[in-house]
Amino acid sequence: MTGKAFLLGIAALVASIGAAGAQHPSPSHAGGYVQRFVSTTPRGSQILYDQNKNDAGVAIVSWFDDSVFSSYDSQGADDFTVPVGSVWRVTKVDVTGVFFNGDGPAEYENVYFYKDKKGKPDRLIEQFLFLHGADSNGSFAIALPEKGAKLKAGKYWLSVVGVTNFADDVGEWGWEINGRQHANLAMWQNPGGGFGVCPAWAPVESCVGVGPDLMFDLRFRWALSGESPRST
């Protein structure tokens, strides 16, 4: 099924369920009006990795529902590489996103780091739950607690999920697409099967027809630690 046909199918489902007095999440949101998060480097902050640019004007849902729509819980993920001979201490994650089917806010955000296996997220190595990043129209600047994520040389996947209660009419959170590919294609999954595609990790382009990557950067904040963000 093409991305366009998938979106049209979901739109028809929204209409039929809406007539019965209920709402239904949609998988993505086209956004010529989407407000971009302008990322700046605060004093004492160093960018370790940056693909928070090339906004394609569309977002893919990466969202957990804290009500009755858990079958639509879904995750986006994108990869990055820590160079050979380096160790990164990630203490802040910036993501560009948008709320749709409502204006937010998120109850909280979850941040996950996975090891790579054959070009897909594999073993979960770090998770930071119930975080409250600075919110700029759905774009989050998320400080990780304590010393953040210490990552040795290798390939990893970042996943960020916005959590809302859809029944409260605050909507869903979508992670905006980076129109330029960096390393592997971004991945997406909907384990509960509510959207009818990609119950396990698969390229976001093959799931919903948008891609190829997601918008984010990784930072180290000197103010949170007395050590260097990189060591050899």
| Helix fraction bin | under 10%
Number of continuous helical runs:
2
Give the rounded overall mean pLDDT. 80
Total number of β-strand segments? 18
What letter string, H or E per element, gives the SSE order? HEEEEEEEEEEEEEEEHEEE
Global Rg:
17 Å
Category by helix and strand content: mainly beta
Low-confidence runs? 1-42
Distance between the termini: 47 Å
Share of residues in strands: over 45%
Question: Major beta sheet, specifics?
Answer: 8 strands, mixed
Which outline best applies?
A: globular
Total tally of structural domains: 1
Write a brief structural summary.
The chain has 232 residues and is mainly β. Helices cover 9% and strands 48% of the residues. The chain has one domain.
List its traits.
232 residues, mainly beta, disordered N terminus, 18 strands, eight-stranded mixed β-sheet
What do you see in this structure?
It is a single chain. The strands form three sheets. Strands 4, 5, 8, 9, 12, 14, 15 and 18 form an eight-stranded mixed beta sheet that branches. Strands 1, 3, 7, 13 and 16 form a five-stranded antiparallel beta sheet that branches. Mean pLDDT is 80; it is low at 1-42. The radius of gyration is 17 Å and the shape is globular. It has 232 residues and is mainly β. It has one domain. It contains two helices and 18 strands.
What's the layout of helices and strands?
Elements: H1 3-19, E1 28-30, E2 45-50, E3 55-61, E4 63-65, E5 75-90, E6 92-95, E7 97-100, E8 108-117, E9 120-131, E10 134-136, E11 139-143, E12 149-164, E13 172-178, E14 187-189, E15 202-203, H2 204-208, E16 213-214, E17 216-221, E18 230-231
Parallel strand pairs: 4-12
Antiparallel strand pairs: 1-3, 2-17, 3-13, 5-12, 5-14, 5-18, 6-11, 6-17, 7-13, 8-9, 8-12, 10-11, 13-16, 14-15
